[in-house]
Amino acid sequence: MFLLLLLLQLFLTGQSTAALFPPNNATTHSAALHACDQLQSSLGSSIVQTTGKEYQAGATNAWNLQNCQYQPTCIVFPRTSAHVQTAMKAIYSTGSHYAVQAGSHSAMKGWNTVQDGVLILFTYMKNVSYDPKTDSITLQPGIRWQEAVTALEPFGVAPVGGKDVGTGLLLGGGISFLSPSQGYAADNFKALDVVLVNGEMVTATASNKYSDLFRALKGGGNRFGIYNSSATEALLKATARYTREVNDPNAVLLVALNNIGGEFFSFAGMFYRGSELPAHIFGHFLSIPAVPCSPLNSTVCSPPPPLGPMSYLDVMATQGSENQRGSVQHFGASALDGADEDAYLAAFKHWSNFTATFKDEFALAGMAFTPIPESQVQAGRAKGGNVIAPPRGGWAAVQFGEEMKAGVKDVPSRVQKGLDLLFEQVPPSPRLPLYLGESDPQQKVFQSYGDYELLKQIYTKYDPTRFNMAHTQGPGGL
C-alpha cells in the first residue's frame, strides 16, 4: 500500500531576508573558528572535523559542483539530535555562519554548504523505521528516498517522497509520484522534531502549541530550522490538456524536454495505479508517434519499457540516480495554468531560444512539467494544509534545469542574465506558487505562496533576531 503519513526527524534551523548570501569578513571568520573550537571541545574531534579524509569527503559531497568549492571551517557529523542541538547552540552563541546538508541534492549555490562557517552534515543519521500500529514512518534527515523506499518495501508501504534525493525535498513541499492522491509530500507529516536556531528542540504537530511552526515547515525551506517539432507541439498540448482535465488521484504524469548538444528529445512518464493506462487519461500521449533515439543521445535516451505492472520501487528507478557528482547544476521554476495551452507553447519557444543561445555552455539543459491536480490540493487540505497554500489544482509546476560542461566552476554571468530573461518570459500564471526545490536562488518563491503573510509572522515568532537570515544562505522574502 502507499503510506499516508510520515513522522520525520528533521533538523532545520530557522529565519528570513536581509541578504540571500550573508557576507563573510574577519568577524564571521573569527566567529566560525570560535564555534568550531567550542564544538570540538564538547563533541570531540570524531564528530567535529576541520581536516582529514572524512572532512574533505564531506566538503566535496554536494551534487552541485559549485557547492563542492566551499571549505567549511568545520563539519559536524551528528549521530543524535542532542549533537544537533549542541551544534546550533554554539553557532547561535558565537554568531557563526552555518549550513545544513542532508541528501545534498540542491542546485542552489550555497544553500547546503558554507564558507567560513559550520556545516552540519547528516551522514550518520540515516535510520528509517515503520510502526504498523500507527501506520507511520520515521525518517532521519540523512537518508535518501531510494534508501527509504528499499528499506520499507518489505513492509508493503511507501513514503510520499522523491527519487534518489534527500529529505530536503520535504522543505519545499515536495512533489512525489504519490502526490496526486496524497498531496504534497510535506502534507503527510505527522510530527516534526525541529532544532531551532538557538539550539532548542521542539516537536511540532498539527495540534500542539507549535502548530504554526508545523504548518510553516510544509514548504518553508531551510528558514525554519534544519524544448520544436509537430510531435513536440502535440506533447505540450497534451500536457496542458492533461493538467486541466485530469483529476484522477491514481494517475501520475511527468513530461521532460531536453537539449543535449543542440539535439532535442522528450520524455513522458505515465503511471497509473491500476491494471492499465486508461485511454481517456493518457490517450493523447499514446497517440504521439515515438521518435527513435539517435547515436548522439543514445547515452541518455533508451527505448521505453513495455507497458506492465511495476512496483513503487520500479517506478522510482525510472528516474535514474542522482549520485553522480562533479558538474555545476542550476534550477529555475515557473507554474502554468492548464487552461492556457498557449503558455505551454510559449514557454517551450522561450526555453528553446535560451538553450540554443547558450548550447556551448551546457552538457544538458531541460524543461519539465509536473501536473498538480485538484486531488493533490484537496488531499493536502484534508491533512491540515501547508504554507504553500495553492488556490486550486489544474496547473503544472515547471522546472528549468541546466548542467554546465565539465570544467566549469560556476554559472557564467552571461548565462545567468539569460536565465533571468527566461524567468521574465515564462512567469507563473496568476496566483500559482513556485516550487522551492526547483527554483533559482533569486526567484521570489515565498512571495508566491498563498500563506506568505502567515509564513512571515511565524518566522518572526521563532527567529525574532533574524539569526537564520543573517547567518545561512537560503530563500529570501521573509
- Basic shape: globular
Q: How much beta, percentage-wise? A: 15-25%
Quick one: CATH class of the domain at 230-449? Alpha Beta
Number of helices: 14
Main-sheet strand order equals: 6-7-1-8-9
Work out the radius of gyration.
22 Å
CATH topology of the domain at 230-449: Vanillyl-alcohol Oxidase, Chain A, domain 3
**Helical coverage, percent range:** 25-40%
Helix-strand makeup class: alpha/beta
Summarize model confidence as the mean pLDDT.
Answer: 82
Task: Give a structural overview.
By secondary structure, this protein is an alpha/beta fold. It has a domain of 220 residues: Vanillyl-alcohol Oxidase, Chain A, domain 3 (3-Layer(aba) Sandwich). Helices cover 30% and strands 19% of the residues. It contains 14 helices and 14 strands. The strands form three sheets. The chain has a five-stranded mixed β-sheet. Strands 11-10-13-14-12 form a five-stranded antiparallel β-sheet. It has a four-stranded mixed β-sheet with strand order 2-3-5-4, sandwiched between helices. Strand 6 and strand 7 form a beta hairpin. The two termini are 38 Å apart. The N terminus is likely disordered.
